[in-house]
């Protein structure tokens, strides 16, 4: 239905408590990129908040939405909350149907040029592996980045990089790619997963290891990854200054073109 005809109760727990999870996927040239990985991650997010909804049904509805919208290249959001109970209570309501909200909009994944990132303490909660709709920390950090003329906020906890406000973080040293290991503190990014697979094919060594925040500016390159940004190089940090020599590295360029190829020619 048109967006202005869609309605959600003000008692919805997504609105009252941020009690829900979501997914965002890119459709490129008629195919949803890495669809099964998005299905798996949504299932994991739902399980971790004990919300029992059929992911299969949701993705059938996604297919129907795509068919109706008839957009070859698009951005698709899936939001699932614990629904609207009659009474406001923190504890889970009984016998309340979840709310499922799907949107699709015209969107082109493109390769971004080098950008700037602010570097800030990770003020978010400690369960960032759940793709939660509670994004206030991310919102405040991204707003700070924007106000500083930057495109991202790279985050750290106790001197170590976690991720960025809307993406995962990678560091390039020589022909080696370093990225923080998966943990509760970061989202298991689908693009991160694809980058690690492509690095292996390209013969780029990969180390999943904690990265000291004060080592970022000394790297040969830094980039962030997400389904909507693709692989975006960061050549300036604040604080930190220019990354490496301020130039895109060979491993980055190889990964970026492998990613473009993968977007267009694989599921
Ligand atoms: N980390 C955070 C906090 C994000 O919000 C996102 C994407 O929205 C990512 C990482 C990247 O995830 P993906 O590659 O699955 O888009």
Could you say how many structural domains there are in total? 2
Q: Note poorly predicted spans.
A: none
The small-molecule ligands in this entry are: pyridoxal-5'-phosphate
List the secondary-structure elements in sequence, H or E. Answer: HEEHHEEEHEEEEHEEEEH
The radius of gyration is 19 Å
The CATH topology of the largest domain turns out to be D-amino Acid Aminotransferase, Chain A, domain 2
Task: Report the total helices.
Answer: 6
N-to-C span: 28 Å
Please tell me what the overall shape is.
globular
Percentage of residues in DSSP E strands: 25-35%
Helices, strands, pairings?
Layout: H1 13-17, E1 20-28, E2 31-32, H2 35-48, H3 55-69, E3 74-81, E4 99-106, E5 115-121, H4 136-147, E6 152-157, E7 160-164, E8 168-173, E9 176-179, H5 190-202, E10 205-208, E11 221-226, E12 230-238, E13 241-242, H6 250-265
Parallel strand pairs: 5-6, 5-12, 9-10
Antiparallel strand pairs: 1-2, 1-3, 3-4, 6-7, 8-9, 8-11, 11-12, 12-13
Helix pairs in contact: 5-6
Description:
Helix 5 packs across helix 6. The chain is globular, with a radius of gyration of 19 Å. The protein has helices spanning 13-17, 35-48, 55-69, 136-147, 190-202, 250-265; strands at 20-28, 31-32, 74-81, 99-106, 115-121, 152-157, 160-164, 168-173, 176-179, 205-208, 221-226, 230-238, 241-242. The strands form two sheets. Strands 5, 6, 7, 8, 9, 10, 11, 12 and 13 form a nine-stranded mixed β-sheet that branches. It has six helices and 13 strands. It folds into two domains: 3-106, Aminotransferase class 4, branched-chain amino acid transferase, N-terminal domain (D-amino Acid Aminotransferase, Chain A, domain 1, 2-Layer Sandwich), CATH 3.30.470; 115-262, D-amino Acid Aminotransferase, subunit A, domain 2 (D-amino Acid Aminotransferase, Chain A, domain 2, Alpha-Beta Barrel). Residues 24, 138, 163, 166-168, 187, 189-192, 225-227 line the site of pyridoxal-5'-phosphate.
């Amino acid at each position: 239905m048109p967006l202005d005809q869609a309605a959600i109760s003000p008692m919805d727990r997504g609105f009252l408590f941020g009690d829900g999870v979501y997914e965002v996927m890119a459709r490129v040239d008629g195919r949803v990129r890495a669809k099964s990985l998005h299905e798996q991650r949504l299932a994991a997010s739902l399980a971790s908040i004990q919300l029992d909804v059929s992911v299969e049904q949701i993705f059938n509805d996604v297919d129907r939405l795509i068919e109706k919208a008839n957009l070859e290249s698009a951005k698709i959001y899936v939001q699932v909350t614990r629904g609207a109970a009659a009474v406001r209570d923190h504890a889970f309501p009984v016998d309340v149907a979840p709310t499922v909200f799907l949107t699709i909009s015209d969107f082109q994944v493109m390769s971004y040029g080098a950008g700037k990132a602010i570097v800030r303490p990770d003020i978010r909660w400690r369960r960032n592996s759940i793709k939660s709709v509670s994004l206030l920390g991310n919102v405040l950090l991204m707003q700070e980045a924007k106000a500083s003329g930057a495109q991202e906020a790279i985050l750290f906890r106790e001197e170590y990089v976690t991720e960025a406000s809307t993406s995962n973080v990678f560091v390039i040293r020589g022909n080696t790619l370093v990225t923080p290991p998966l943990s509760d503190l970061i989202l298991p990014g689908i693009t991160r997963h694809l980058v690690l697979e492509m690095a292996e094919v390209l013969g780029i060594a990969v180390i999943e290891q904690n990265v000291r925040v004060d080592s970022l500016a000394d790297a040969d390159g830094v980039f962030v990854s997400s389904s909507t940004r693709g692989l975006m190089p960061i050549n300036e940090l604040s604080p930190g200054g220019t990354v490496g020599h301020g130039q895109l590295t060979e491993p980055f360029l190889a990964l970026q073109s492998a990613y473009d190829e993968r977007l267009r020619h694989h599921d």
